[in-house]
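New to this. Please check this protein:
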Amino acid sequence: MSAEPGSAGARGLEDMVKLEPFELPSTPFLPAGLAPLRVKASELEGRGTLRTSSYTIYVDLPGNSEDMLLVQAYTGAHDLASRRVATYLRSLEAHHAPNPLYGTWTPEPAIEGEVSRPSDETIEVLKKRGYLVTLTPEEEESLFARLSARHHLATLRGAPNYVVMPTYECNLRCPYCFQAHMRTEPRNAHLLRVMDRTMVDRILAGMRTIEAAHGLQEGADVSRGLTFFGGEPLLARSRPTLQYFMEQMRARGRVRLAAITNATELEAYADLLGPEGLASLQVTLDGMPQEHDRRRIYPDGSGSFERIARNISLALERGASVSVRMNIDRNNIDQLPVLAELFEARGWSRQAGFSSYVAPIHAGNGQVDAGSTFTSWQLTQAMEELRQRHPAVSRIGLTDDSLQVKARQLFDQKARSTGFSTAFCGAHTTMYVFDAFGDIYACWERTGDPRQRIGHVTPSGEVLMSRLHLHAWRGRNVVSNPVCRKCRYATSCGGGCAVLAEGASGTLYKNFCDGYAQRFRARVAQAYLEHVSGTGPGLSVTRLCEA
C-alpha cells in the first residue's frame, strides 16, 4: 500500500499493523477450554438434582419485607417472589461465587430466615423461568457462553454507527482531558490538521464498503447515525467541512446528526442547528461560573461559561436537543443544587429538548488527583443524598437512570426484559471512528495513535482493516472474559469500560465492574418504589458514551 502525504503510512507507521481487506467475523467467538455442552433435553429432565441458576439476581425491595425481585440474566425472566421462595433459591446455590481472577464482585444479600421447600407448582414455575436448573455450573456457563456468543455475532452484523473527528485540535485546555497531550506536546503537532473535502469523500466511500460488509444494500432505506467528535468538532474554521459532510450524508438518505461539543463557537453553526441538521448536542458544564471557569479554560486561562451558556440557549431556540454533561468530583458536586436552579432560571429546564446528567471524572492523566474522584457507585450514592436534601437535583440525571427507566418499564409491563447486552458499548460492536487522516478506530478514547487503529481508508476509498486490532476490540465481550462468563450481572453490565479496565489492569480484556452489582440493585429497587407509588418513570438520560 502506498502512503499518501499526511497519512499514517507517511508517518512511518505502515508496518506497525497489518492492514487487510475489510471483513466481519463470520462465526461466534468461543474461548478455548470452554466445557462442551452435549446434554439433551430428555437427559436434563431425567436428572433429579436441582440447583439455583448461577445467573439469578436477587433485589431487595424498599418498604416490602415480604417479597424480593428475581431476575434471570440470560432468559430475561423477572418475577416478584416471596422471601421464603427467594431464601429457598439461595439455599440451592451450588457454591458461593468464586473469587474473581481479576476485578471485584459485590456480595449478594445474605440468606435470611428458615429454608422451606415451596409447592410443586411453584417449583415447576421456577424451573420454567430458568431459576432452577439441572445443569452443572460448568454446563450452564457453557450454555451462557454459547447464547452470548451468538447474540454478540448478530450484534456485530447490525447497522454501523459512525463517529467523525474533523480535527484533534481544541480551543480549550481542560486539565482532566484524556487528549491533553495532543495539544501540549510538540511531537503531536501533526495531529492538529482539519479534515478537508477530499478526506470527506474518502470516508463516505469507505462507509459504503463498511455498510456492504454489514449486509446493507446500496440505496437501502435506513436511518444512519453520525456523531461529530474531537478535539472540538464545531470550531468555526471546521464549518465548511462539517456542512459538506452533512449535505453528503443527507443526500444518501435519512441520517441522525449529533455532536459532542464544548459549544464555545456554536454560533458559527446557528443555521445548521435543529431537527433537520445538528439535532442533538452534548455540552459540558462543570459547575457554576466560578468553578467551571477554573476547569474548562482557554489557553490563556480565561473561562468559557457564559459563552457556552449563550450557545446552549441558541441551540434550544433552534430546536436542537441539548444534553448537558457535568463532570463531577468531590470538589464540585456540592454545586449541583445551585446549578439545577440556574438551569431553571435560564429557562432550559422548561424546554422539552433539554436534559442534564452527571458523570464521574476519572484520573486519566497526571493532572487529576485520584483521591478527589468518585467511582460510579460512590457518585450514585452521593447523588441520592443530594436528591433527598435538594429536590431540584432530581432533575439532573445519572448514567444509571437509564437502567432505572428500563426496570420501571418492566414493572409497568411495558417491556419484557431489561435487555441482553454482551458488550459494554459500541466500541465492541458497530462503532467506527474516522479521523482527519482516514484512520479508523473502535473507541474515541484510543484515537490519534495509528498503532491502535482498526483500519484505514485509502485515497481510492478502499477500506483496509487490521485483523488483530479489529478482532481485539470487537471480540471483547462477556464471553471472552472468564470472570464475566460466571457473573450474574454480565448481560446488563457488558463487562465495563475497556479503557478503564486497561488503565486499572493493563489490558482491555479484563473487566471493570465499578460497583455494578450495587448500582443494579439500587436502580431496580428505586424503579419498584416509583411503580408502587405511581410517580414519574424516572429520568431518561441522553448520553453518547458511558465512560
Confidence is low (pLDDT under 50) at residues 1-16, 98-105, 538-547. DSSP finds 18 helices and 17 strands in the chain. The two ends are 36 Å apart (CA to CA).
